[in-house]
Amino acid sequence: MRPTAAAARYGVMAIATLILFLPSSVAVQAQDEIVARGNAAYQEGDFAAAVEAYEAVLESGYRSAGLEYNLANAYFKTGELGRAILHWERALELAPGDEDIQANLDLARSLTVDAVEPLPRFWLFSVMDWWIGLLPAGWLRGIVAVGWLAVSGGVILRVLGRAVWVPTVGRSLIAVGSLILLLFAPVMTIRETGLGLPEEAIILAGAVQVRSAPSAEDDLTLFEIHEGTKVRVDQRTAEWLEVVLEDGKVGWVPVGVLEVI
């Protein structure tokens, strides 16, 4: 478990990123102070206060890998394993491949009650997952923006350019920009909208009876799962969710026992 040094590093990242995204200098200063207060509370061992501070920033609409990471660390220290895993998962979505996040997430998973052995996946699906999660969200946006600028610049040169060499440069820019957009725009769309991605969630309740149908009848119980277990949500009713475990087991659980990543 390596929360302290990485938490400080991510705290600085969170504060710096706030300056870019919050709408006014007053809001930036307020969020800045809340994040700093959360970091200070964490360092002082007041993990409940750190949770409160980080959650307040999330509720304002701001998200970053650093903020989710710090919040997960604080939840882990308060003994809320499910919420710690939930926020480390969210942090990993925002910063794929981060070693500190992955290390803490692996440790937390090893502490869960349920030993779920994932089913083997077809290699092509694994490659697609790797490609979709290869780059942080900020990098994807920047790369796609470069692609659009290249295409736009190429079109402008083709239309307005008068020199002999201009059309050639324009064609090259359009070709390069189009290739960039072809490779990265679909990935950014999937990451930003969740289109085509499974709806995954973390069990937050201590123990949950998984039933064969959306009903509270005890004789429908199939098995029990516990806090921190990761599931996929396949169907919904007003009060029940059909979930699939990573080992392929399927059943229904009440709506309030989990939270979607």
Describe the protein.
- With 261 residues, the chain is α+β, with helices and mostly antiparallel strands.
- Helices cover 58% and strands 14% of the residues.
- It has helices spanning 3-21, 25-43, 47-59, 65-77, 81-94, 99-110, 123-132, 137-160, 166-193; strands at residues 199-203, 207-211, 221-226, 230-236, 240-245, 250-254, 258-260.
- The strands form 2 sheets. It has a 5-stranded antiparallel sheet. A two-stranded antiparallel sheet has the order 2-3.
- The longest helix has 28 residues, at 166-193.
- The protein starts with a helix and ends with a strand.
Task: Name the features.
SH3 type barrels; 5-stranded antiparallel sheet; 261 residues; 3 domains; 9 helices; 58% helix
Write the layout of secondary structure elements.
Elements: H1 3-21, H2 25-43, H3 47-59, H4 65-77, H5 81-94, H6 99-110, H7 123-132, H8 137-160, H9 166-193, E1 199-203, E2 207-211, E3 221-226, E4 230-236, E5 240-245, E6 250-254, E7 258-260
Antiparallel strand pairs: 1-4, 1-7, 2-3, 4-5, 5-6
In short:
By secondary structure, the protein is an alpha+beta fold. Helices cover about 60% and strands about 15% of the residues. A hairpin with a 4-residue loop joins strand 5 and strand 6.
The largest sheet has its strands arranged as 6-5-4-1-7
CATH homologous superfamily designation of the largest domain: Tetratricopeptide repeat domain
Which CATH architecture of the largest domain?
Alpha Horseshoe
Structural class: alpha+beta
Q: So what's the oligomer here?
A: single chain
Sheet having the most strands? 5 strands, antiparallel
pLDDT < 50 stretches: 5-10, 12-22
The CATH topology name of the largest domain reads Serine Threonine Protein Phosphatase 5, Tetratricopeptide repeat
What is the CATH C level class of the largest domain, in words?
Mainly Alpha
Shape: globular
Number of strands: 7
Query: Count of helical segments?
Result: 9
